[in-house]
Amino acid sequence: MEEFNVTKQGSHVMTNWNPRILSASRMMGVIFLSSASDATDHFTQSMRIRSDKVWPAYRRVHLFESFDSAEAKLTLRVKGALGTMRETVTKANGAELTRYSFVKGFQVADDAWMIRFASEAELNRAKELFTRMPRVKSLPVTEQNTEVPSTAVSVR
């Protein structure tokens, strides 16, 4: 799983940017944001990506600061379906097996995050990783907890 130090724009106040850890699992096709108050809690928010846009492809209204600023050029707009991570731990033959699965919520794939990277190299690395991830379609979810068939397994 790849990790990036980023800042995320506030959901309700566009001028608030909070430091977060962005983790991305290419195998699961899911990105995660740590808690704004606790960076060690990596699975606070998770999203299956539908689309991502880098400056100048996203609209000016999504940023409060100058659209031509250096900060705007390091900002990525990600849209997708929010969900939660389910972690199941089992023991077999003395080994501990941890299975992670992404469970989509009741919403459609239309939630958006504005994520700012520290450097152009980090932005490009994340963009390349996101390009190789499977995408979710913009269709409504019919059940409240529809499990997406992407899972990852970790053996310790």
Largest sheet: 6 strands, antiparallel, barrel
Count of alpha and pi helical runs: 2
Q: What is the average per-residue confidence, as pLDDT, rounded to a whole number?
A: 78
SS class: mainly beta
CATH topology: PH-domain like
Helix share, percent: 10-25%
Q: Please trace the helix and strand order, writing H or E for each element.
A: EEEEHEEEHE
In the predicted model, the low-confidence regions spanning at least 5 consecutive residues are 139-156
Q: For the largest sheet, list the strands in their spatial order.
A: 1-2-3-4-5-7
* CATH class membership: Mainly Beta
Gyration radius over CA: 16 Å
The gross shape turns out to be elongated
Could you say how many structural domains there are in total? 1
Number of strands: 8
Distance between the termini: 16 Å
Strand content: over 45%
| CATH architecture title | Roll
Task: List key phrases describing it.
PH-domain like; disordered C terminus; 8 strands; 156 residues; mainly beta; 6-stranded antiparallel barrel; single chain
Short summary of the structure?
The protein has 156 residues and is mainly beta.
What does this structure look like?
Strands 1-2-3-4-5-7 form a 6-stranded antiparallel beta barrel. It has a single domain, classed as Roll (PH-domain like). It has helices at residues 70-73, 120-131; strands spanning 2-9, 17-25, 30-33, 45-54, 75-92, 95-104, 111-117, 146-155. It is mainly beta and 156 residues long. Strand 2 (17-25) and strand 3 form a beta hairpin. It is elongated, with a radius of gyration of 16 Å. The chain contains 2 helices and 8 strands; from the N terminus they run ββββαβββαβ.
